[in-house]
Amino acid sequence: WVGTQSTVLGLLGDTTSIDIDYIAAQDFVESVKRVQEPYKKANRKFHPDNTVITLPTGQKIGDGNLALIAGPCSVETEAQICEVAERVKASGATFLRGGAFKPRTSPYSFQGLQAEGLELLKKAKAKTGLPIVTEIMSIGHIPLFEEEGVDIIQVGARNMQNFELLKELGHIRKPILLKRGLANTLQELLMSAEYIMAGGNENVILCERGIRTFETSMRNTLDLAGVVMLHKMTHLPVIVDPSHACGHAWMVPQLAKAAVAAGADGLMIEVHNDPAKAKCDGAQSLTPDQFDELMGFIRKEVEFFGKKMN
Ligand code: PEP
Ligand code: MN
User: Fold this and answer.
1) 179, 184, 192, 255: residue to mutate for ligand 1 pocket, most atoms within 8 A of CB
2) Which helix H or strand E contains 269, and what residues bound it?
3) Three-class SS string for 96-128?
4) From the CB of residue 282, how many other CB atoms can be counted at a distance below 10 Å?
5) Which of 82, 140, 184, 208 has a CB 3.0–4.6 Å from the CB of 188, allowing a cystine?
6) Atom 9 in ligand 1: which residue has the minimum CA distance?
7) What are the tens digits of pLDDT across the range 245-285?
8) CB 70 within 8 A of CB 98
């Protein structure tokens, strides 16, 4: 389009690899606007059907039912992880979470049991059959996570834009639970998913875990509208972690119920057998009894929405 003052050029086709900053840097260019989203593989426009993540053992996330991931913030002892695993399973959880490598703000805080934590998770899995979800922080640990039979590898909020890690996770085939960064937009979250998918691993589960805002009464602000928006933007499953979103155990049940109403494909909830003595995130952890009570409600809520618990 040629006007009297300016000329507008349109590019058609796959423009994902075009660097708009480079075009904008040319002195004859006034402005550049991307009409199409820069994420292609994660985009619902090119893949209208929901992606369903299926583990080799049959558990699913994103099939229209609700997946439940529960467990302590960090693995502490064999007795602790096994007790929590048995209790959350009895209440209806389908996956066990537990951190072995912990991203702590202070280097002086408990860093997790590391490789021993993975061993303990494996024991809890052997006892309960629950697949395990645990966080990775370093590329170098990928072989260990594979050997130890981690079922879903979590990329924590702080590593959402650790692009080298994301690229490597694109080369394996295990499902990746990608948490939204503390101050990242939905598009940035999808671009991070795109890194993993571009490498060939399309098994990505997104997790809304609260974003940092000006509010100080809660650890973060749970962006439930973001969950609704993500379901429009992408075909990938979206789960909600109400525990890290608010930081207060007493708030978790209401937020979990709201997440189900907002259409979340799953929940990830921190549960500890003795929250007051937890080495990490005790204040936001439910007791097994509180989790059980919540599951009683969630079961009815899920039914109301015509779904099932997975
Ligand atoms: C966690 O799940 O224990 C965790 C550290 O979460 P996030 O990365 O969302 O802070
Ligand atoms: Mn935690």
Assistant:
1) 179
2) strand 266-270
3) EECECCCCCCCCCCCCCCCHHHHHHHHHHHHHH
4) 16
5) 184
6) 157
7) 999 999 999 999 999 999 999 999 999 999 999 999 999 99
8) no
